C-alpha cells in the first residue's frame, strides 16, 4: 500500500536469463505498453538484465524505464577478474543495482558486510542500491524470520543510505521461484518491522521503498501491493514476459 510521498517501484530481476533477441522483444513490449498508457505509470519501472545485455537494454528504453545491474564489486577498479565496478554500471547509464540477493548470498557466499561494502560503492557511483533480505524456510519454521531479516538489514545498510539512494527488497528464500508466497499478515509483519528499523537507522527511513519479492505474479500482485509498507515488487520469473511484468507494474500503485 502506498506510503505517503513514495512512488512504488516495479523491478524485474532477469537473473541469468535472456538473449539479445529476448532483450529486444521484451523491452519493445514494455515501451509500447508504456506509450499506450500515456508515458508513465503510478510505479517506476526497472529492468535488471544480465551484464552482457545492459548496454543494449539502455539503448532500447527511454528514460521512463530504468535499467540496473544485478551486482557490483565493492572496489572502484583493479585486479578482480570477472567483476564489475559500480562506476561502470553508472557510466553506461544504469541507475540501480541489486545487491545481496539470496542467490548471490548462496552461490557466492556473500555476507551482509560485503553487501554493505558493495552498497557503499554503489552510492559513491550515484546508483540506487536495492538491498535484498529474507529468511529461509527453516528460519521461518523456527520463528526467526524477523530476527534474521533484522540482522541482515542492520549489517547490510551502507552508512550514507537514504530514501533517495536505497531500496530494500524483502524476499523470503522459500518463496523465490516456488509459486508459494507468505500470507498477507506475514508480509505485513516483516515489512512493518523493516520500516521500523529504517526509521531508527536513517533520517528519512519512513520514505525508503520496501519491495516484496518471491513468486509475484499478475494473479497475486494486487493483493500483495495492498499490504501496508509494500512499495513495489522485485519480480523474477514473471519479469521475463512483457505481458506479465506489465500487469504487475500496473498493480504497483
Ligand atoms: O528472486 C526473485 C526476484 O529477485 C523472485 O523470483 P520469482 O519471482 O521468480 O519468485
TrEMBL record:
SUPFAM superfamilies: Triosephosphate isomerase (TIM). It is found in: Cytoplasm. Pathway: Carbohydrate biosynthesis; gluconeogenesis; Carbohydrate degradation; glycolysis; D-glyceraldehyde 3-phosphate from glycerone phosphate: step 1/1; Carbohydrate metabolism; erythritol degradation. It catalyses: D-glyceraldehyde 3-phosphate = dihydroxyacetone phosphate; L-erythrulose 1-phosphate = D-erythrulose 4-phosphate. The active site is at 101 (electrophile), 171 (proton acceptor). GO terms for molecular function: triose-phosphate isomerase activity. Its EC number is 5.3.1.1. Pfam families: TIM. Keywords: Cytoplasm, Gluconeogenesis, Glycolysis, Isomerase. Substrate binds at residues 13-15, 177, 215, 236-237. It comes from the Bacteria. HAMAP family: TIM_B. Involved in the gluconeogenesis. Catalyzes stereospecifically the conversion of dihydroxyacetone phosphate (DHAP) to D-glyceraldehyde-3-phosphate (G3P). Homodimer. Belongs to the triosephosphate isomerase family. This is Triosephosphate isomerase. The gene is tpiA.
